[in-house]
């Protein structure tokens, strides 16, 4: 296990910059070595695809790559407030107006309910896996253990994409609400460059400044950041209470007509797929398991309590918005501020704008914590240079990882509009959450060396049926046959058959140590179905961007990632004694029974 003493024994300063820090693996020592590695890409790729990590490696052995430990200083109350601070503000104040105006209309609360239900299912899956594998890598570590390196790498790429794009979107929304606070148009503080394409021609220097400021605070320490976030969250709760009280006081049922579904059910699900981005902060809580005093108890409590409260808040706040103002008149960039002004409470727009700024600042602050932890664990495996895994001995935070994510987010925020960012981030999030649910099913129903071939075949068959029927339902709903019921009956029956088959015919191979998802396998299977269904509701442009990004990730993996991780996995440093020591440490201290 990594320790502060370990970093001191190495005699290496934290502030350093050399080729060996970025590319320490044998495959990159020279061009001759790299050429040889490329010639061995086939065998190495097979090794990486078929390999699996372990709980001991993810939560124990790999910590040595950071040279100094992350500090255990958080409780479930901290995690609940971190979840609340990360999510509320990054969603309801940002996307509600856009989706009510263009996709869902007055039915926007139903979009939030659908997305919230899917997110709550995912939070159950995260809660169990976080107690079993209390690593800073969150979903990345879960997938490395259960689905292997290639699936984990695709998740890693999408995690980093989500982190960068999500932070960039929040930064731009911060500028819009600042403009509303001072009584200006939402784009008034941006620089319009006509030579650039639409969606990329409004430059936003304020977003860059805000991103850098919140990241600077995040690197000061998890304890200080959590305390500031908790205080800010209490203020945010008071502002939400004001929004709900003021909104429903000016609620006009006529604004919900003449049609509650002006864009049809398809519009509601399309909006649900986009506003799912509003719930992505909860997965940041899972990345804090390594810094939580009692992850076995605190992570499930923090995740599920915050997600339940957030779903209720989102539905209520979105209903208040469309009740105050007809959906066709909603300002897509600063919806609540403009709605209160239209209701005759011009002074309230400043309170709402200030609350939105507070919420988005908290979202950026907590996001900077979680994004850096993801990046740290990915770097520990050498999928990206291990330089970004280093933890500062004084602050106990991964400064290099935080700076890297911040620079990337700032560059994107400077150019890209919110609608471009939201669709890319949502599809990445849904993809990861679906993989996490699959990983949990694999963990419960398959143990290498213990599961019989017959049991494995049974599990694979029913799991394939669940995934196939979920994809089929999504494709059918978005096809020209969407109004015909036989397809829904057929795919729904296949999903029920697959899930019931798992429950009745496939024997669970592993019991959770501390916390287990209830109604196994129904809840994880439903999480797979809802995430894939919402993915299908996104437009073709989102898929095109997702495909381009995934292709770029695979090129990177073949040229760099597969060789770095192969060297890391087969290095002499990963000794059996180190793994055994990590197992002992994990069992004795990492997971504390309730």
From TrEMBL:
InterPro entries listed in its UniProt record: AA/rel_permease1, CAT_C
Membrane topology value: Multi-pass membrane protein
Keywords: Amino-acid transport, Membrane, Transmembrane, Transmembrane helix, Transport
Localization per Swiss-Prot or TrEMBL: Membrane
GO cellular component assignments: plasma membrane
Residue ranges of the TM segments: 73-95, 107-129, 150-171, 206-224, 231-248, 260-279, 300-327, 347-369, 390-415, 421-442, 462-479, 485-505, 517-536, 542-562
GO molecular function terms noted in the UniProt entry: amino acid transmembrane transporter activity
Cationic amino acid transporter C-terminal domain ranges (all copies): 515-564
Stated family: Belongs to the amino acid-polyamine-organocation (APC) superfamily. Cationic amino acid transporter (CAT) (TC 2.A.3.3) family.
Protein name (Swiss-Prot/TrEMBL): Cationic amino acid transporter C-terminal domain-containing protein
């Amino acid at each position: 296990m990594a320790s502060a003493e370990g970093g001191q024994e190495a005699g290496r300063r934290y502030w350093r910059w050399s080729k060996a820090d970025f590319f320490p693996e044998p495959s990159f020592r020279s061009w001759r070595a790299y050429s040889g590695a490329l010639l061995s890409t086939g065998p190495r790729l097979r090794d990486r695809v078929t390999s699996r990590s372990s709980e001991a490696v993810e939560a124990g052995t790999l910590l040595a790559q950071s040279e100094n430990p992350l500090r255990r200083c958080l409780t479930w109350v901290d995690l609940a407030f971190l979840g609340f601070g990360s999510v509320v503000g990054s969603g309801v104040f940002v996307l509600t107006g856009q989706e009510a105006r263009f996709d869902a209309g007055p039915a926007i609360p139903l979009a939030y309910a659908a997305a919230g239900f899917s997110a709550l299912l995912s939070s159950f899956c995260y809660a169990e896996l976080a107690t079993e594998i209390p690593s800073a890598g969150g979903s990345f570590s879960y997938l490395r253990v259960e689905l292997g390196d290639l699936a984990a790498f695709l998740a890693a790429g999408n995690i980093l994409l989500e982190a960068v794009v999500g932070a960039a979107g929040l930064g731009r929304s911060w500028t819009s609400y600042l403009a509303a606070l001072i009584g200006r148009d939402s784009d008034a503080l941006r620089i319009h460059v006509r030579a650039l394409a639409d969606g990329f021609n409004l430059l936003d220097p304020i977003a860059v400044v805000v991103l850098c400021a919140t990241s600077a605070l995040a690197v000061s320490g998890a304890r200080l950041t959590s305390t500031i976030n908790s205080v800010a969250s209490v203020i945010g709760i008071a502002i939400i209470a004001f929004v709900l009280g003021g909104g429903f006081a000016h609620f006009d049922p006529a604004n919900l007509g003449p049609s509650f579904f002006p864009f049809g059910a398809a519009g509601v699900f399309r909006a649900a797929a986009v506003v799912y981005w509003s719930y992505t902060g909860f997965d940041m809580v899972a990345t804090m398991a390594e810094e939580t005093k009692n992850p076995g108890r605190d992570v499930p409590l923090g995740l599920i309590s915050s997600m339940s409260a957030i779903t209720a808040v989102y539905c209520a706040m979105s209903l208040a918005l469309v009740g105050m103002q007809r959906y066709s008149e909603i300002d897509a960039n600063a919806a609540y501020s403009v709605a209160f002004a239209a209701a005759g409470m011009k002074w309230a727009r400043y309170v709402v704008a200030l609350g939105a700024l507070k919420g988005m600042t908290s979202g950026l602050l907590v996001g900077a914590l979680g994004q850096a932890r993801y990046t740290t664990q990915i770097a520990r495996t050498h999928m990206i240079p291990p330089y970004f895994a280093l933890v500062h001995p004084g602050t106990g935070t991964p400064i290099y990882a935080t700076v890297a994510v911040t620079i990337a987010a700032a560059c994107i925020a400077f150019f890209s509009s919110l609608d471009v960012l939201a669709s890319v981030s949502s599809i990445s999030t849904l993809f990861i959450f679906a993989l996490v649910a699959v990983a949990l099913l694999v963990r419960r129903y398959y143990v290498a060396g213990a599961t019989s071939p017959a049991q494995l075949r049974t599990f694979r068959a029913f799991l394939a049926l669940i995934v196939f029927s979920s994809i089929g339902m999504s494709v059918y709903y978005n096809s020209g046959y969407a109004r015909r019921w036989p397809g829904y009956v057929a795919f729904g029956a296949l999903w029920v058959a697959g899930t019931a088959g798992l429950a009745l015919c496939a024997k669970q191979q592993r019991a959770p140590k501390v916390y287990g998802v209830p109604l196994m396998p129904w809840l994880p299977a439903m999480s797979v179905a809802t995430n894939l269904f919402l993915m299908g509701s996104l437009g073709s442009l989102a898929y095109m961007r997702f495909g381009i990004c995934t292709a770029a990730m695979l090129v990177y993996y073949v040229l760099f990632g597969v060789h770095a991780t192969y060297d890391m996995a087969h290095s002499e440093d990963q000794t059996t004694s180190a793994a055994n020591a990590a197992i002992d440490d994990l069992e004795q201290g990492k997971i504390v029974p309730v």
